[in-house]
Amino acid sequence: MKNLHFLLTLILFSCSSDDIKVDSIPDTEPITMQPATDMELMQTVQEGVFKYFWDYTHTNSKLSRERLHENDLSFDANTVTTGGSGFGFLNVLMGIENNMISKEAGISHLQTALNFLENADRFHGAWSHWMDGNSGTVLPFSTMDNGADLVETALLCQGLICIREYFKNGNTAEQQLAQKADALWKGVEWDWFTQGENVLYWHWSPNFNFEINLPIVGYNEGLIAYILGAASPTHPINAAVYHEGWAQNGAIKSEAQQYNIPVLLNHGGANDSVGPLFWAHYSYLTLDPRGLTDRYANYWDVVRNHTQIVLEHCIQNPNEFSGYSDKNWGLTASYSRNADGSTGYSDHSPTNDRGIISPTAALSSFPYTPEASMKYLRYLYEEKQEDYIGIAGPIDAYSSHYQWKTQRYLAIDQGTIAPMIENHKTQLFWNLFMNAPEIRSGLVTLGFTSTQHGF
């Protein structure tokens, strides 16, 4: 591999003339570098994406920047993202576990971030989608979206719970950090976001109230909001909110198949197709789908089938996009390119396939499709490293068909890669979250059972 050859060259040329003499080198065959092992490659990509949340974190708040442009690091530098910061917290814990940073450095980083969140704008306990990383004031995500974002808040809170569980039995500084994380998550008024109905609503604005009027109904990335709402010891929702709202009185179930693989749950209201792969990642950074069932589905089957459908779609390639294969696959929301050459953002899926591969899709699916995800990882680092690997790991998106790539990164895309690989390797975040007492209680309240975690 190129990076191993570079390392060897660096070692040789860093030695003094007294250390290595030309006439002392034996006349042997040229050195053949061994391919990296699977574990080494997983460590490499974890280290790469970790830089987004450490080297390029917002310097004041220590929260995660919404985006990073490789050719202009100052672009949009003060916009931090709530959900992406929750992913960032998991990346910091992963960094500690894998000796990328010291525990002391990680604690200091997280202390600053949690202190910032404590003083940032909140709306009935929830944070906005975007904030100014210097002041903590809300930055509107859209015209009426200038207040609470409950799904983004849920993505943050799963990180807070993992921080608490990770540090709660440590020294004084660690326990204080755990207590701060606990207080922040318990401040969210989940029940208030029902408007007195049996469903959770996504947004609230101090200027527009609930005018956006977007209920969180399944199946999409919003499952974690219902889990946390049921688990809250301070502002809980009741089980009917989940069953009548999220599950739509059972209409969430699907009998459809794609590529002879059962879909199982209606994706975004469509009962015959699957959505972008981030729906199989965001809630499951911490929620362990192995052996997890309720009256609607076995969630391991849901996420595994979702991933296999996307994989099979890329292999069969019905749209005949060049470059698609069993080693170059993965459709999810990311930066995008349209057929007319314009660029933007799109939630790629089998029903919205624009010829764009998003590396986070396959890499964050390691627990579900380990062999196919490893084949993709080797493709990236052994065949396309110069093209698709940048300053913070794999770039956000590319297209072989259009000979296009973006040297940009998004927190919500980079942020799922390392934690999901860690769950594949050690189940770190699944164990932290699922062993939290209120999470177990909340899941039981909603009718979940877990053979993996004994309830």
What does this structure look like?
By secondary structure, the chain is mainly α. It has one domain: Glycosyltransferase, CATH 1.50.10.140. Helices cover 41% and strands 10% of the residues. It has 15 helices and 17 strands. The strands form eight sheets. It has a three-stranded antiparallel sheet. Strand 12 and strand 13 form a beta hairpin. Helix 2 packs antiparallel against helix 13. The longest helix has 18 residues. The chain is globular. The termini are far apart. The N terminus is likely disordered.
Descriptive keywords:
455 residues; two-stranded antiparallel sheet; 41% helix; disordered N terminus; 15 helices; Glycosyltransferase; mainly alpha
Q: Can you tell me the CATH topology?
A: Glycosyltransferase
CATH architecture: Alpha/alpha barrel
For the biggest sheet, the summary is:
3 strands, antiparallel
Q: What is the helical fraction, as a range of percent?
A: 40-55%
Radius of gyration: 22 Å
Low-confidence stretches: 1-28
Largest sheet, spatial ordering of strands = 2-3-4
The rounded distance between the terminal residues' Cα atoms is 46 Å
Count up the helices. 15
CATH homology group? Glycoside hydrolase 144 (GH144)
Question: Secondary-structure blueprint of this entry?
Answer:
Layout: H1 2-14, H2 38-54, E1 67-69, E2 79-81, H3 82-97, H4 103-119, E3 130-132, E4 138-139, E5 148-149, H5 150-167, H6 172-186, E6 203-204, H7 223-231, H8 239-246, E7 257-258, E8 261-262, E9 292-293, H9 299-316, E10 333-337, E11 343-347, H10 359-363, H11 370-383, H12 385-388, E12 389-390, E13 393-394, E14 397-399, E15 404-406, E16 408-410, H13 411-426, H14 428-434, H15 437-445, E17 449-450
Antiparallel strand pairs: 1-16, 2-3, 3-4, 5-6, 7-8, 9-17, 10-11, 12-13, 14-15
Helix pairs in contact: 2-3, 2-11, 2-13, 3-4, 3-5, 3-13, 4-6, 5-6, 7-15
